[in-house]
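In this section we walk through a basic example: taking a raw amino acid sequence and producing a predicted 3D structure, encoded as discrete structure tokens. The instruction is simple. Fold the sequence below.
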Amino acid sequence: MSSLSLAVRDSSTMLRRNLLHVRRYPSLTLNLLLTPIVLLLLFVYVFGEVMSAGIGGGGADRSAYLAYLVPGLLLMTIGSATIGTAVSVSMDMSEGIIARFRTMAIHRGSVLVGRVVGSVLQSVAGVVLVGAVAVAIGFRAEGATALEWLAAFGLLVLVALALTWIAVGMGMVSPNAEAASNNALPLIVLPLVSSAFVPVEAMPGWFRPIAEYQPFTPAIETLRGLLLGTEIGHNGPLAVAWCLGLTALGYLWSKSLFNRGPR
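The resulting token sequence is shown next.
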């Protein structure tokens, strides 16, 4: 078999292994998905009218705030799912299975590729679940064209790929599952201090740069523009640049840690 055929075969095997783990132990993924769903219901039905009145400067409109909220929560869903990736990778490292894989006659990169592809699929499934809940409670993006929907899906996959590679590195560098969960916490905290819940312009001046100059805000604004027709401006290229940069950083970091040998 050629080197490419071996890499594809071994990566497929590792992908099946990771998906079997999800099927046999679904509690971790489900618990992480509950966070964005609970936030969605909480902010829409408890704070929706107040938040919409404050943002719009006019009458309370819960449906308008739901439309504003959903793009940010979709990205938060991806951040939540990648925490599970960091924990799973850390468990594999501490239990010795990664060391065992290093001694086997398999393509070395397949261990990481299988993990990343499986985690991206989990993230996409989580986005579909949260999106379905949002649609069930009234979210609509009727003005979006088929091309804009495709671009929105591509952006979500690109964000999932970037955050997954970062999460893999965090999991490999963590001594145990608890540390991995703590190390990956910024992946779910950063959306909370972005434009997911309120516009950047509504934040205090000293806090505004924290929300503006981070990867989630341009991705949220781009997704919001694609689905709702708001202005995208420079956020589109900036979101793609963040994703590509984080993907490259996470890949190089994870590859370096994997090739370093047993810890």
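Looking at the output, two observations stand out. The first helix runs from residue 3 to 24. DSSP finds twelve helices and no strands in the chain. In the next section we compare this with other chains.
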